Every structure is written in C-alpha cells, then in structure tokens.
UniProtKB/TrEMBL annotation:
Database matches in InterPro entries: HATPase_C_sf, HATPase_dom, His_kinase_dom, Sig_transdc_His_kin-like_C, XrtA/PrsK
One Gene Ontology molecular-function label: phosphorelay sensor kinase activity
Membrane-crossing segments per the record: 12-29, 41-58, 64-84, 96-117, 129-154, 166-188, 200-221, 233-254, 260-280
Protein name: histidine kinase
Database matches in SMART domains: HATPase_c (SM00387)
Source organism: Alteriqipengyuania halimionae
Record keywords: Kinase, Membrane, Phosphoprotein, Transferase, Transmembrane, Transmembrane helix
C-alpha cells in the first residue's frame, strides 16, 4: 500500500482530537437529550480525543496506544448499551447486557494478549498466529457491535429513531471501518498502513454526526421492538458466530502443521458445512429460536399489531383465493401459534359438532359426530381454550377432560382446542395441530386465542346470517310469486263466479251466450298465460314488448266488465304504445276491478284515452269512497297491505312494477268521499324506438 505523508497523518489526528474534545464540551450541557447515554457519549468523545493524541506517539509508546484504542472501544460499547435506555430497552431486552459484557470481555482479552505479546520471544509462525488471533478478536468485537447497533436502531419506535439515527450512524461508521480494517489485517497478516493513517478521520466524523442528535429536543419515547428484525438479527449473529468458530478452529488445526493436520482441517470444514446444511434450514430449529427470542427479548410473547394484521389478511383474502371461509378460519387461528394444521368443527341441527374443514391435516380420522351435544354445550357455556398436552399429563384442566372427546385425547398431534363463541352461542371449535417446537400454552396464549376465537366466531355468524338471509329472500320471492298467482286467480274466479250467477238469469239470451263464450275464452287464455309466466314470474318482469293499440284494448276491457258494472269509455285520440299486451291488460283489468269494487251504486266507472306529449295516457275514474293521502303515500303500493277485506294487497304493487318495467308510470289522485283517479302513462311507439336505439348504442360503447 502507498504510505501517506507523516505530516498529513499527524494533521488528521490533531484535528480529530480537537474536534472530539470540542464536541464533548458542546454536548455536555445538552447531554440530557441523549437520556442516560449522554454522559457515556461525552466520556467516549473525550477518550477518543485522548486516543488521537496518543496515536501520534504510538510507535514510541506501544502499550499506551493499544490501551487508548481499547479504552475507546470500551467507552463506545458502554455508550451503545446506554443508548438502549432511551426507550427502556436496556431493562426489557435482557440479552443486551450479557452481550455487551461479552464484547467488553473479548476487547479486554485482546488488550491483554496484545500487551503480553511483545514480551514473549516469538518469531515466524508463532508471531503470525498471535497477530491473526488479535485480528480475529477485533473482528468478533466489530461484528457483535454492529449487531447491537442494528438492533438499537431497527428495534426502536418511530419517535426514538429520530434521535437515534445520528449516534447509530456514527457507531456503525466506526465498527464498519474496524471490520474492514481488521479483515484486511487478518487476510494479509499485516497492518494496512494507509488505513491506519486515515483512522483519525473516524472520530472526527463521529463527533460531527453526534451534533444533530444533541440538538433535538427530548420527547417521550415508547418501546416498539420489531420481532421479525430481532429474529433475523439473532439468526445473523448465530451464523456469524458459527463462521467465526469455523475460521478459528480451522486456523488452529492449520497451526499444528503436517499432513495429518491438513486432513483434520479439511474433515472439520466438510463436517461443519454438512451440519450447517442440515440444521440451519430446520423448521424445528427456527421455531426454537423464535420461541427463545420471544421469551427473553420481549415483555409480551406476541406482536399484537402484526398478529391482528395477519389474521385479517388471512380471513379477508377471499377475492384472491378460492379457499373457503371455514378453511381460512382454521389457517388464521393456526398462524397465531405456528401450528402447521388444524380442523374446524361446526354445530349440527342436533346440537353436536361435526367436521366442516381441514387445513393441512388430512390424516386425522374424525368421527361423523365429532362432539356430542353435552360436550358442545360446555364449550358454548365456558368458552375455555384447552391445552390438550397439559390435560393429558394431568398438570391442569382436569375438569375439561370429561368434555373432550376420546378421539381428540388419543390423537397425539392434537394440541389445543379453541372454541368460537358468539353471544354465548358456539359457532365452531378449532382443533390445532402441535407445532414443530411444542411448548406449554400460557395466559397470553389463552387470552389471544380467546379474543381471536370470538372475532372469528363473529365472521362465521355473519356468514350464517348471510346464508339465512339469502334463503329467506328465496322463500320470500317464492311466497310473493304465489301471492301474485293467487291474486290473478282470485280475479279470474270472481269473473267466472259472476258469469255463473248471470247465467242463471240470462242463459236463454243469445247475446249473453255470445258474451259468455268470449269471457270463458279470455279466462282460459289468461290462465294459460299465467302458467307460462309462472316460471319467470317476478314483479316488473315482462315479455317482449310490441305496439299495442290502446283504443282496441280498452274497448275489449269495457265489454268484459260491462256485464258486472256500467263502464264508460271516452277515446279522445287513438294512441299506439310500446308495451306487453298481456301485462298491460292485467294492469288495466286490476284498476277497473278496483274501481268497480269501490263504487257501490250503479254510477259508471269512466275510462279516458288521449295523448300527453310523448306518452299515451289512460285514466280510470270512480266515484267511490276514495283514499286518504296518508294511505296513498305509505300503503297503496306496499305489498301485502290492502284496504279491502280479504284482499291480498298485491294488485297495486304489481301494476306499478309492471308499468315501470314498460318505461311508464302510474299516478294517483284520490279524495275521501269523492273517489279516485288512476292515470297510466306509457311511451308512444316512436319514443320507445328511440329508447331502444340509445340503449343499443350504450351497450356497444361498453363492449
């Protein structure tokens, strides 16, 4: 490497010493902004300044230079530990303290070995081994310190990161520099002189980076460690320790020398690699690591925010997957405890439970009656989460044994039972499979599983309610169709009854017999049309429309109803509209029949036909009892509400829906004691053609 001029090296170290001391003096009155870490940071800056001065004479004072360098590392390690106290993690994350102590021990061990080494008469291979060992110790400290800094920042809350980003960046800069510095030294077997000359820039940059953090105002900070990041960091630390151990043992074997040593070295590397390939990807090992970290690093076993988000994602992903809700329910509960599978039992009509879904557990044989009604009622009443392992061993939950089916107890992989209770009603029971690394459930597991079970029960109850609502709507539709059919049959029956009554009086008259045949033919046609329409019967559903001559239709209706009551027809203008002839006849027949029923004397019911702009208008007027404004507004067109004794309350509703389906409308005017007027307006043939052209154009544009 190219050596830098000594003058430049001295200048860098002098500036670093001056800057570190100045920043320490500036931070001291503001040290409270770093919390309990303020004092250690000031001390570390001062020690860094002392090391920069001592480093200028390191060649003459070898032991002093090493002691100052180690003191700097120890001071910054202590400051790193104190920075965890900003949001209380120095107390809640118990492994931090032992890890910091271990790093300090390695640093002191390196200092002791480095201090004794010059006094030992070593040369050649022995000196190189000691140098490699010293560099390896430095690497261990650098790697461990970087892991600490990583967890310091990543595991902090959002508000704490604003304060920690500057000291964490400064510490990361120092340890990354040392990592590269001593890696080169370890690989080359010598100190890189150029990097050593530039080493003074590090305390200078660290001092500058600490200023913005001290300038921030203090604030209340909360602990918010990330479990996933902690797990990944710990895994990285385990892998790093494994690699360091491999390198150390391999170097020790190489130091022995000889062919046998090289064979042992090769055998060790191969064996260690095989062990790593077998155990590091192990699910059981990962589960053990996760449980261990959660137990020792966090106050609570679960990250409730993350668990809730995962739970809702699993339940709500129906749009992305064809997985049924029952299977997703088992998956959501299993994820909480890392169970690899599970079952869902749901209530039967008899009160027991039966299998409804499996998730990753196809091998378990479940009886047709998975749980009898008495056992199911216990879980519905108590809502207990059952730890089957504890129950089998007799450690706890002895009372629940009488209510757990025998097949569950005998199923070795069955681990826990989670009842799904909604308003004291059992909507299901989840049977969880034992995870790879089984543990005893504790109060936190019980609380979270019970809450998740109640939430899941509400989802299942909502699904049951939706299915019941769909079924009720289907029955309602069926009942409504039957009501419409009964209404139409009632009208036909009334006409036939009237015809039979009049036949007793006028059967000998040829004119009556002619009208009777017409009436019977019309009734038969209506019954056939009703049967044809029954399969598609729905309010507002009509057949294909066609031009209808209203004058002809109204005259036919007048002739039909004139037999039972006087009907007058006034045609002011002949009009043709686009409509379904059968549906329109049904509407007008209903209006005429109602008008006749409302008129008790022989006063005529009047029908009028004329044109109103783009519509053909039909009026049906009677002089009956009339209706109140309140009844017209709130009850006239409401299904199953009728003012007539024995009426179905269907006719007016059906008439309005049919007219609406033909792009028309019905208007009503009524006065109590004066009578009523119903107006039916339907679009003319030309206007209907314009409507159809516009709809075809819209359909083509959408395609």
């Amino acid at each position: 490497m190219i050596d830098l001029p000594q003058a430049l090296t001295n200048f860098v170290y002098i500036i670093a010493a001056a800057c570190s001391a100045a920043v320490a003096a500036w931070i001291y009155p503001r040290r409270d902004r770093y919390g309990r870490a303020g004092g250690p940071i000031v001390a570390a800056l001062i020690i860094s300044a002392i090391w920069a001065v001592v480093a200028l004479t390191a060649n003459e004072i070898y032991i002093a230079g090493r002691a100052a360098f180690s003191a700097t590392h120890l001071a910054w390690l202590f400051a790193t530990y104190r920075l965890f106290s900003i949001d209380g993690r120095d107390e809640s994350l118990r492994p931090i303290r032992p890890m910091a102590i271990a790093l300090c021990f390695v640093e002191l061990l390196q200092l002791g070995l480095g201090t004794l080494a010059p006094g030992l008469a070593m040369a050649g291979g022995d000196a190189r081994m000691v140098f490699s060992l010293l560099a390896l110790f430095r690497l261990m400290v650098a790697v461990g310190a970087l892991v600490l800094v990583h967890n310091l920042y990543v595991g902090a809350s959002a508000s704490a990161r604003k304060l920690l980003r500057w000291p964490a960046s400064a510490l990361a800069l120092m340890w990354v520099y040392d990592l590269n510095f001593f890696t080169i030294a370890y690989l080359t077997g010598d100190i890189p002189s150029s990097l050593a000359a530039l080493r003074g820039i590090i305390p200078l940059m660290m001092a500058v980076m600490l200023i913005p953090g001290a300038a921030l105002s203090g604030r209340a900070l909360k602990l918010a460690p990330s479990r996933s990041v902690a797990f990944q960091s710990f895994s990285l630390l385990v892998i790093g320790a494994y690699l360091v151990a491999m390198v150390g043992i391999a170097q020790w074997l190489a130091y022995l020398g000889g062919d046998f040593a090289r064979t042992l070295q090769l055998a060790f590397v191969v064996t260690a690699s095989v062990i790593a390939l077998i155990f590091l990807p192990s699910t059981k090992l990962r589960s053990w690591l996760k449980v261990t970290l959660t137990k020792h690093l966090f106050q609570h076993r679960y990250d409730y925010r993350e668990e809730w988000l995962r739970f809702t994602r699993t339940i709500g992903r129906a749009a992305e997957s064809d997985t049924p809700l029952h299977e997703r329910a088992v998956h959501a509960i299993s994820d909480i405890t890392d169970s690899p599978g599970g079952l869902l039992l749901v209530p039967t009509d008899g009160g027991g439970l039966e299998l409804a879904a499996r998730w990753n557990w196809q091998t378990l044989d479940v009886p047709a009656m998975a749980m009898d009604p008495q056992q199911a009622s216990f879980f519905s009443r108590e809502g207990f989460v059952v730890d089957l392992d504890s129950m089998r061993s007799g450690m706890s939950q002895e009372r629940e044994r009488a209510f757990v089916p025998k097949w569950m107890v005998e199923a070795e992989r069955a681990w826990a039972l989670v009842p799904l209770v909604h308003y004291e009603r059992l909507t299901g029971l989840v049977v969880l499979m034992r995870p790879q690394y089984a543990r005893q459930l504790d109060w936190e597991d019980f609380d979270l599983l019970k809450v998740a079970g109640r939430q899941l029960a509400s989802y299942l109850a909502e699904r049951e309610g939706q299915e019941a609502l769909v079924e009720a709507r289907q029955f309602d539709e069926f009942n409504r169709r039957i009501a419409f059919v009964m209404h139409d049959i009632k009208n036909l029956a009334s006409q036939l009854t009237l015809l039979a009554r009049n036949a007793e009086k006028h059967a000998e008259k040829p004119e009556f017999r002619t009208d009777m045949l017409v009436t019977l033919r019309n009734s038969a046609e209506k019954l056939n049309a009703l049967l044809a329409r029954l399969g598609r019967y729905n309010a507002g559903e009509i057949a294909a429309s066609a031009p209808v001559d209203l004058a002809v239709l109204l005259d036919q209706l007048r002739q039909r109803f004139a037999i039972q009551h006087p009907v007058e027809l006034t045609i002011k203008e002949k009009v043709a509209v686009q409509a379904d002839a059968h549906a329109l006849e049904q509407v007008l027949a209903h209006l005429l029949q109602n008008a006749i029923d409302a008129t008790e004397d022989e006063t005529s019911v009047v029908m009028t036909l004329d044109r109103d702009g783009m519509y053909g208008r039909i009026e049906v007027r009677d002089s009956g009892a009339g209706m109140s404004a309140e009844f017209v507004r709130s009850s006239l067109f409401k299904p199953f509400v009728s003012s007539k004794k024995g009426g179905f309350g269907i006719g007016a509703f059906e008439a309005r829906e049919l007219v609406k389906a033909m792009r028309g409308r019905i208007e009503v005017e009524s006065r109590e004691g004066l009578g009523s007027r119903f107006t039916v307006q339907l679009p003319l043939v030309d206007i209907s053609e314009l409507y159809e052209q516009r709809e075809r154009s819209r359909a083509g544009a959408n395609e």
